[in-house]
Amino acid sequence: MNEMIADRTRRTKWFLHDRFGMFIHWGLYAIPARGEWVRSRERISVEDYEGFFREFNPSEFDPKTWAKLAKEAGMKYAVLTAKHHDGFCLFDSSLTDYKATNTPAGRDLVREFLDAFRADGLKVGLYYSLLDWHHPDYPHYGDRNHPMRENPAYSNENRDFNRYLDYMHGQVRELLTNYGKIDIMWFDFSYPGMECETWKAKELVEMARSLQPELIIDNRLEGSGEKSGTIMTKNPSVYAGDFACPEQMIPPSGMTDEAGDPIPWEACITMNDNWGYCSSDHHFKSPRMIIRALVECVSKGGNLLLNVGPDAKGRIPRESVNILKALADWMKDNADSIYGCGMADYEKPEWGRYTQNGKKLYAHVYEECMGAVCLRGLAGKIDHMRLLKDGSEIIPTDFWNVKEYPTDAFFFFDNRTSSFPLPDENDSVLEITLK
């Protein structure tokens, strides 16, 4: 193991233990309420977007309420958008006037978020967009994402990208200097022509590490065009990051480097179809789907970063709150099958998934079984079994035809003759202590 990977392994130890975090996308785009990409999708000029800046005043913003919801849902860390692509800063940057402290809100919302979440014992991260559709020196016309990309009136003549990079690096320095210990820096995102050293990525990461050596960083500085030095290689670059972050999907078999060794990763997933608040989007995933997504991530050696998009008043939408409360109920009983767990030594069972922490193997049973639940390959390897939610004993069964499967173990949830209905329709977890 080279020194860079060894450092990454040390830095991410807590991250791979905690497994579950909250993503928070929030900014001016909560007012038009059509998602965080509204400026780009609708080709809104900076002048026409300015009205939202003059109006921004989240009168019901209470980060202590957010932190309480996250903690009760079993989340161990949270990441807030300090600056999204529209360039608006939720923090009191000395490098711009385009910030929350200059709106009717008049508050440093990043500082309040950090104080509240730390006070509840959660680790904290900040999302920072490498893009900036407000800054005059960021490429406009012809850029693939800028709102004015098709408007020749916004030509790039006299734009100085190096001046923008000085600004961007300066803001990252502010975030890592003025706000105490930051656990995660979540950069977003690279795209063809705007990746890697275009951002002066090596310099940026070296500066960040010099300020906060224990900081963990995502891998979105590297871009998809790099053929070597990515987090997927055995010799990652300085800016390859500490963890990969697949978006809106869970990798089919986890994530490994070119040698097949697991790398840290985190799936970032929305509850509905938008990251930022979208008042018309009621296409929310069910609590069952999200619980199982969390289990799937852990079973593949990864984390889940689950997003909320607060509204213009600073409130997490009711649908999201209801999902978080359902997660709280399940995690209260089953958190041991998540924290400190990872991939199991046994293949995925047909009725659900396994997670494992040492000699504790957790069977996540999703499907009702006709007859006893089969634990393939576990005959003679089990010390004892308990239903995780209440600690009740589960006894291996020797019902009439199990002798035909000498290498497998079996059990009934009622210790008699039935495996339906399941104790928990979302995910019934059996804690198996191995010999």
List the defining traits of the structure above:
435 residues; alpha/beta; Immunoglobulin-like; 14 strands; TIM Barrel; 5-stranded antiparallel beta sheet; 7-stranded parallel beta sheet; 2 domains
Main sheet characteristics: 7 strands, parallel
Give me the count of strands. Answer: 14
Task: Please report the distance between the alpha carbons of the first and last residues.
Answer: 31 Å
Q: Class by helix and strand content? A: alpha/beta
Portion in strands: 15-25%
Query: What is the highest CATH level, the class of the largest domain?
Result: Alpha Beta
Instruction: Look at the structure and name the CATH superfamily of the largest domain.
Output: Glycosidases
Given the C-alpha coordinates, what overall shape results? elongated
Give the SSE order as H and E letters: HHEHHHEHEHEHEEHEHEEEEEEE
**Proper CATH architecture of the largest domain:** Alpha-Beta Barrel
Average pLDDT confidence is 96
Number of helices: 10
Low-confidence stretches: none
CATH topology of the largest domain: TIM Barrel
Rg calc: 24 Å
Q: Give helix % range.
A: 10-25%
In total, how many domains does the architecture comprise?
2
Strand neighbour order, sheet with most strands? 5-4-3-2-1-7-6
